[in-house]
Amino acid sequence: MSMPARSYLTGLAFLSPALFVLIGFFFLPVVLTAVFAFTNMSTSTGISGGSYVITGNLLGSLKAQGVAPTVVDALSQASFVVDEQSIAKAQAAGTDAQFLAEIEQQLSGKAFSEERAFERELKSLRYRPRSIRDLKLAVDQFELSVLNTRFASAAEAREAVSELVPSAPADVVDEIVDASYTGWRWTTSNFTRLVSSSDTWRLVGNTIFYVAVTLSFTVFVGLFLAVTTFYLPAGAASAFSMLWLLPRITPVVLYTVMWKWFTWEGGFVYTAAQALGLPAFNYMKGSVPTAWTIVIMVNGFIGAAFAMILFSGALKAIPVQQLWASEADGASRWQQIRFIILPHLRWPILFVVSYQTLSLLSSYQEIWLTTNGGPGRTTTVWALESFNTALNSYTGNLQYGLGAAMALILVIVGVALSILYLRLFRFDELLSRPKIEF
């Protein structure tokens, strides 16, 4: 084997763990999300194949869709037929042989539209059961009904509907059978529903506002903290940095509980407002402006701590000679920040903006644990709605397909924004060789 080929295989071997992680934890979830997004999977359909069941609710919707009332009424009623199939069914159920032979001899080929009429006929027979319960069990074996009956295949359901309503046209029977399917189907209706729903545009507006304002807070506060600590003495800078790291290293549940204690009834802000004669209420859920303020601050301080770490590390990498030279030339602190520090932070700022945008687009846990999207649904963002739709529905019917469609849209938006950021910040120039060396 040649040296280049051996080097290629060695490099591939070293990369294989990372490739497995990338495929298993990124590409595979995205692919599965895309697959589910084009289905109508939900709690009611399940995630495997379904059966065919005609229910009372289905008959009501079929009538509303224009199916003939006579057909719908026929499907909703049960009849009692004595034929080879029903006799075989009764025999398998253990009906008395003499009684069954008498039924076949005297009632074969007859049909009854009412259960009571069929019972009267059976009571007139010589070998009828003396127990009312046994007679009822025998009657049930001759019942012909499709209502709430589970059929394993479309062919079985179609045969049962045609037998009960022989006058129904074939296309109507197909429509009924198709509507009775309880399993999931391939569909694009999730995206049609999202485009046509007025709630979608409210969620889009909430998400844009949340991401834009929180991202601005994160970048500017993180940059301010990093630059401030950069000019402080080493001991004070370390203490100041550790203090601002608390939002990042504190468990999110504990962090949100602290904010609840801080802003709810009886909390610090509530008590202080009462003492000052200001309006005192639950600031986290009592009004839309205060709810948004808290949501942005809760997420903004976490992001600012992360940004401060990156910016502080990048500031320490700035050649100290440039700062000395600028001071010798009489540059002020603001001039150093504007002409030396900010240009050197171009890559960290790009990374923080890109990372935090994607993080904020997909984050919902802080909102869920604080305002839960309230008051009302005024602080509900796209990611939280996707989570509630797929995994936390108040109605109990989890809509996996619709939730996956919402998640897929987030992935597409995130990828598009990443490409936009790379072009906006001129990523190729950031990776070019430096023009000045020290």
UniProtKB/TrEMBL annotation:
Keywords: Cell membrane, Membrane, Transmembrane, Transmembrane helix, Transport. It is a multi-pass membrane protein. It comes from the Bacteria. It is found in: Cell membrane. Residues 204-421 form the ABC transmembrane type-1 domain. The keyword Transport applies. Pfam families: BPD_transp_1. Its main location: membrane. InterPro entries: ABC_transporter_permease, MetI-like, MetI-like_sf. The chain crosses the membrane at residues 208-232, 244-262, 291-318, 400-425. Belongs to the binding-protein-dependent transport system permease family. PANTHER family: ABC TRANSPORTER PERMEASE PROTEIN, INNER MEMBRANE ABC TRANSPORTER PERMEASE PROTEIN YCJO. This is Inositol-phosphate transport system permease protein. It comes from Pseudorhizobium tarimense.
